[in-house]
Design a protein that fits this description.
heterodimer; A: five-stranded antiparallel beta sheet; B: alpha/beta; Rossmann fold; Elongation Factor Tu (Ef-tu), domain 3; 39% helix; globular
């Protein structure tokens, strides 16, 4: 038998994702669970983490690491009702660290839930009619659709597909209900488990699998950064079908050039009726063809890279029993969110509602001394009559606001110090992952570092007269790329505390990856490197030319035309 | 069988004593009989009439029966009782020491002479083990005690309003029941040692007047010997004669962001013969916060006197406010406004959460150093349940010290001893300590007995010592820890050590209750109730139950829950459950160390 990654063995022995999780919860002497079970727990929507800020002091204090759990919701489409919002907010205060974290994949995360509260938090989430199944793990994770479903009929179709596809690919194991929701299923210890996984099989996928759905011209979901993408083809306001992309992904490993971020390939066109079937077959081809020996090469992007898009398409078509159509024309303009109010795009003028896209720095809904966003949103939810939509840029839409309610919402926000606009175009397009102190993978700060860096850069932009210019800037604490830094015009990836790799030259519309420009640079070096480039951009840009395109045209970095040349043509800046 | 040695205080040099002991040890009964006759005859032949008379008098006087009854919380009253017994033995008394926890009130009627050593704790309550006795004594069912001669020594703490309350009540009740007080009661504060000794001397003199005789020749030797578990061995190091220790580790065990501040303190003691049993308490002679001492001095216009400030900081109690102090201050200053405070109600109101410094600052007067010191009592020691086994850590004692801090009447305050460690001691510093044995809180002699240990917060301290001790002695008995605190992540005291003990099997089970991790408060008693089947099964196997921690905050609820648990198999009859728990107490299987 060929060598298998450790996770494969854990999955195989897990009795469909049960493992020793239930038993681990009963061990009160530790706030942790067994290492193997931490892998399985991801399939249930939770990561074990520890507070890395306090790691150093713990042993001396005769305490184990400050373990806690991150819980991520499965929220295809990203919509929650005011009633759900209030329940989710309560959970944040009762069991988590008092904040709601909106993620780059349009859902909520809780941080800091301790083991003894894990089960009751899961139950509280369930009481809000939301679950966390497959929010993480080697399965089809949360499905994002273009924000937001109330904008037009096509957007609603995108949301419907997101929900339907997510449900279609839900794991069928009873483990989740059994462990968390006291579903009184007897754990069968005999080798054959009563349930089966008709799509995934007992080993699930080789690696995580991410699906998104875009409605042009917005590429807010970053379609090319994901395993599977659907691009709505809209004719006369109706979705006539979907262009299907495969093989995108962000993660890589520092210093290993056989790992790289990759923009997805266009696979073809399918009709609305075929969409779920096509997606399922993409999943099963990856299930069978994906690399189960080397985990860092296990994602779909490496499978597509290895076999080529044509062979991959052919296999999907074979399994579907029909051919895909030629991709239809579409065009994207940007990956960001339009911050502020906008109205429903279609329908009768009298029916049009208002929608407010609120910039949420780092996606962190919290109360500070001056800005009480959590309180403001809770009060808006209490008033009711709106919907909340999490965007893929970790912002929040307060949707379906009547003209009458609009000033009330504005007043509530103002009362709690929440400003609708942002201080600059750069900040409007800024995104950072969680990183320290909770994320186990983080090599450097991200969420706690980027806002200050943006403030410093704003001074430079001011001098260059570019404060309002939309420039996409993203940071992650590790090369895994949760905030999709390789698709940012200015991207940072943590290397070690205080040091980052600087990437430049991605396309504003999310179609081209960036290129490394400088290695292991600190805050001062970052500013020193970027200042002349920004100044040059201000002087030399052509009309409407975005920063990412400019740095390529100016030869500051070479263009990355595909994932497989991400590591090529690199000329590092001297620092 | 070995014979008891000659008493150490026999009028011989150590060398002679050793020689005599050797001789006596190997002598036959016939030889001893011959020798005693010979020596008696020798004195008579030499004309030593006095001595002969003395011997005769002692021999002829009937021995005086004496019941020494004690009720003790921290062990002070118990220690005094045993000291009295020793002395009484020399004075021709047949003394027996009885713990109130072990005697029926009805039995008192039979005692002709009764010496009572009783402490008061908390807000005027009897010691826990004495509660039932006290209730019975106060009840209508109490026996008549006509013909009983008695005296009461009361221990207390002037820092509490109801100073020596239990002693006063018992004294009054004994008279009510017809007993005759033959010696006036004495009420003693924390520095009781000298006065207590004098009182005992005087009392015994009344019970059994000494015969004029060269005292050295009248020696009472208890030939029955003293069994080890009857009379506690007196520790070498006491509050009056402490050992010096060096702080070798001082760590706040609570994680950053905790609402608690609990210090693990390791003390290295080089003093000869320093030892303790797990379950014992270590007394610490702390020093005050010098800033507070300076403030006290400043309040009476003596702020320039550095040596006075030092003296106060090191040796005087300035963090309490007793009636005695207020009285003395009123008399000293002649202030009528202060005098009005001495009314019980007014005093209770003013002294609530106030200290000496508040009195002096509220009623500013210039005093001399002598006048100021005259208002103060010596700074008492503070007791901490030892958190280590000396077998596991030779020459060390570990303490678990919860820093006590609060704010009242606009001032930040701190517990004297706890902040002494938290703020004013660092590794390498010296502290003065002593040992306070607690034979009512000890591991079962049989290492195979299961133990169930219940503790919240610093109440977990003795269990660390218990488990360490069992590891060292290879005791095979099962052990089960119930631990409670506020937050799991930051307040799980000694978490890594418990994990190791669980892994090695030294600790069999653990259950935890963290009150503030979830909306509803979960305390140890809730875990006990959840685990009641297991607890009953362990008790059936002969388990000993231990409770350590705060009485009001925990021990009372735990006690009630144990009653409920014991009542469950008895159709929920709580009376029967209570009786069952009492049986366990009498059998030494339910032991509490609460404060």
């Amino acid at each position: 038998m060929t060598e298998r990654a450790k996770n494969e063995i854990v999955k195989e022995k897990s009795r469909l994702l049960r493992g020793g999780i239930a038993e681990g919860l009963t061990h009160v002497e530790t706030g942790a669970i067994e290492e193997d079970d931490t892998m399985l727990l991801k399939f249930h929507g939770s990561y074990m983490q520890d507070d890395r800020d306090v790691r150093a002091e713990r042993t001396k204090k005769k305490l184990e690491k400050a373990f806690s759990f991150m819980i991520r919701l499965r929220l295809p489409g990203g919509v929650v009702t005011p009633g759900q919002w209030l329940k989710l907010d309560d959970i944040a205060g009762t069991y988590a660290n008092g904040t709601l974290r909106l993620t780059t994949r349009a859902t909520f995360q809780y941080h800091g839930v301790i083991k003894s509260n894990l089960k009751r938090t899961m139950q509280a989430i369930n009481a809000a009619c939301i679950d966390t199944i497959a929010a993480c793990g080697d399965v089809n994770r949360n499905v994002m659709s273009a924000s937001h479903p109330f904008l037009s009929k096509a957007h609603k179709e995108a949301e419907k597909l997101a929900i339907a596809f997510s449900d279609h690919l839900l794991p069928r194991t009873g483990a989740y209900h059994e462990i968390w929701l006291d579903d009184q299923k007897v754990i069968d210890t005999s080798p054959a488990t009563p349930e089966s996984e008709p799509i995934y099989g007992p080993l699930y996928l080789p690696r995580k699998f991410k699906t998104v759905i875009a409605v042009p011209p917005d590429n807010d979901v970053d379609i090319f950064a994901h395993c599977l993408g659907y691009i709505a083809i809209v004719e006369k306001g109706e979705v006539v079908g979907w262009n299907v992309t495969v093989g995108g992904g962000m993660g890589m490993t520092h210093g290993e050039t056989d790992t790289f971020p990759r923009t997805a390939d266009m696979m073809g066109f399918c009709t609305p009726e075929q969409a779920i079937d096509v997606g399922e077959k993409v999943v099963t081809v990856q299930r069978d063809w994906g690399n189960r020996a080397v985990r860092k090469n296990a994602r779909l992007k490496y499978t597509v890279e290895r076999v080529g898009i044509d062979a991959f398409r052919a296999e999907v078509e074979k399994r579907c029993g029909f051919k895909l159509g030629a991709p239809r024309p579409y065009s994207f303009t940007s990956t960001g969110d339009p911050i502020g109010w906008r109205q429903t795009l279609d329908g009768k003028p009298a029916d049009k509602k208002w929608h407010l896209t609120l910039y949420v720095e780092n996606g962190r809904v919290k109360d500070t001394a001056t800005v009480k966003m959590r309180t403001a949103l809770r009060e808006i939810a209490q008033a009711g009559g709106v919907d909340f939509v999490v965007t893929s840029n970790q912002n929040l839409v307060i949707a379906n606001v009547t003209a009458k309610m609009k000033p009330k919402i504005e007043a509530l926000l103002e009362k709690h110090g929440v400003v609708i606009g942002t201080s600059s175009g750069l900040r409007r397009n800024a995104m950072a992952c969680v990183a320290l102190p909770t994320c186990a993978l983080a090599l450097a700060e991200s969420e706690r570092f980027l806002p200050g860096l943006v403030t410093d850069l704003e001074d430079i932009l001011d001098k260059a007269g570019l404060r309002e210019e939309d420039i996409v800037i993203r940071m992650t604490g590790c090369p895994n790329g949760c905030a999709r830094p390789y698709l940012a015009e200015i991207g940072f990836v943590g290397r070690s505390p205080g040091l980052y790799n600087l990437y430049l030259g991605a396309a504003f519309d999310g179609t081209r990856l960036s290129k490394i420009y400088a290695q292991d640079v600190n805050r001062e070096q970052i500013l020193a490197l970027l200042e002349p480039i920004i100044k040059r951009y201000a002087k030399e840009r052509t009309a409407g030319e975005h920063f990412g395109n400019f740095v390529v045209r100016a030869g500051i970095v070479a263009a990355t035309t595909a994932g497989n040349n991400f590591h090529e043509n690199v000329v590092l800046a001297k620092v | 069988m070995a014979l008891p040695p000659l008493p150490k205080n026999a009028p011989f040099s150590a060398e002679d004593l050793a020689f005599l002991n050797q001789l006596v040890q190997r002598s036959t009964p016939l030889q001893r009989s011959w020798l005693s006759g010979f020596l008696a005859g020798l004195d008579a032949a030499q004309g030593g009439a006095g001595a002969a008379a003395a011997v005769q008098a002692v021999a002829q006087r009937p021995r005086v029966p004496l019941t020494i009854l004690y009720g003790s919380e921290s062990g002070n009253a118990e220690a005094l009782a045993y000291k009295a017994k020793k002395l009484a033995g020399k004075l021709n008394c047949d003394a027996k020491v009885v713990d109130m926890g072990d005697i029926d009130v009805a039995a008192l009627a039979k005692s002709k002479n009764l010496a009572v050593y009783i402490s008061t704790w908390g807000e005027g309550d009897p010691p826990q083990r004495a509660v039932d006795f006290y209730k019975d004594l106060m009840s209508d069912a109490a026996p008549r005690l006509d013909g009983v001669k008695y005296a009461v020594l009361a221990l207390g703490d002037t820092a509490y309003v109801n100073f020596c309350e239990t002693g006063k009540k018992i004294d009054a009740r004994l008279t009510e029941l017809g007993a005759t007080r033959i010696h006036d009661r004495i009420d003693l504060d924390l520095d009781f040692a000298k006065q207590a000794a004098a009182w005992t001397d005087a009392l015994l003199e009344k019970f059994s007047p000494a015969v004029e005789a060269p005292s050295a020749t009248v020696v009472h030797v208890d030939f029955k010997g003293v069994s080890a578990d009857d009379e506690p061995a007196e520790p070498l190091y006491t509050a009056e004669d402490p050992a010096e220790a060096e702080v070798s580790a001082l760590v706040n065990l609570n994680g950053s962001g905790s609402t608690r501040e609990t210090y693990h303190v390791e003390l290295a003691v080089e003093a000869d013969g320093f030892t303790y049993e797990p379950g014992a308490a270590i007394g610490v002679l702390p020093e005050n916060d010098p800033a507070l001492a300076a403030e006290v001095a400043r309040a009476v216009g003596l702020d320039g006197d550095a040596s006075l400030v030092l003296k106060i900081a090191k040796g005087y109690d300035i963090t309490t406010l007793s009636r005695a102090t207020v009285d003395a201050f009123a008399n000293l200053t002649g202030r009528t406004d202060v005098a009005t405070l001495t009314d019980a109600e007014a005093l209770a109101k003013f002294s609530a959460d106030r200290q000496l410094v508040d009195l002096l600052a509220t009623y500013p007067e210039k005093l001399t150093a002598e006048q100021l010191l005259g208002l103060l009592r010596p700074l008492p020691g503070r007791l901490y349940s030892v958190a280590s086994s000396i077998k596991a850590h030779p020459g060390e004692a570990h303490l678990l010290v919860g820093a006590v801090r609060w704010e009242s009447h606009g001032r930040k305050r701190g517990g004297v001893a706890s902040t002494y460690f938290a703020d004013r001691r660092k590794v390498g510093d010296k502290v003065r300590i002593y040992v306070k044995p607690n034979r009512h809180y000890a591991l079962p002699a049989d290492g195979n007995r299961p133990i169930i240990m219940i503790g919240a917060g610093t109440g977990v301290a003795p269990y660390r010592g218990f488990i360490e001790d069992r590891v060292e002695t290879g005791a095979a008995g099962k052990s089960w820890l119930f631990f409670g605190e506020r937050n799991y992540t930051n307040d799980f005291l000694y978490q890594l050590e418990w994990q190791e003990h669980l892994a090695s099997g030294a600790l069999t089970k653990i259950d935890v209750a963290f009150s503030r991790d979830q909306p509803e408060k979960i305390y140890v008693q809730h875990r006990l109730w959840e685990q009641r089947q297991g607890i009953l099964a362990w008790l059936d196997d002969g388990a000993h139950l231990y409770v350590c921690g705060d009485e009001k905050g925990m021990a009372k609820d735990v006690d009630n829950t144990l009653v409920k648990i014991l009542a469950e198999p008895l159709k929920g009859d709580e009376e029967a459950g209570r009786a069952k728990l009492k049986e366990l107490t009498k059998a030494g299987r339910y032991q509490r160390d609460v404060y």
